[in-house]
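Example record used in the benchmark description.
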Amino acid sequence: MSNSTNRELVKFICYVFLAYLLDKSVKAVPGDYVDFILCRSCGHEILHPSAIIQVPSKVAHRQRNDTIAGRNGTLIQLFKNPDGAFFEVISATEANLTEVSKPSDLMTWFPGYHWTICVCPMCMKHVGWKYHATSPERKPQSFFGIILNNILQQSEAESIIHIPKAYTS
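Model output (structure tokens):
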């Protein structure tokens, strides 16, 4: 390689390393980091952890609490659809999803709510459902049921993505 090419390569490696260090230092500032919930298929931001709520259902096969994106006591409910498929679901007030079906109350997991199928707006992967109250007295008026297996915490994604060794040595 020529000296010019070597200098460009060294410069590139330095930029990558500097970006890596800056990224690490930004995340080290306490209180500034938000562990967003991402689409497991494409990494698109689906929801902010502050949108997670508890909407218990008597139809759930099982309920448990866990920590999701730094939110202690997140209610995770296990549901079974008519085809026999099981889904672990969390609830949220807001989500960056696209509704792709007409409302239905058929076999609803949340009595008093109609549901619509929701997909990631980037990759169109089925991520959950939006529930709409059937009466104005019901609270919340709407919420999202998010399939736990179809999402990923941002911190989890970042822990598996790293700078290749070729750029760090």
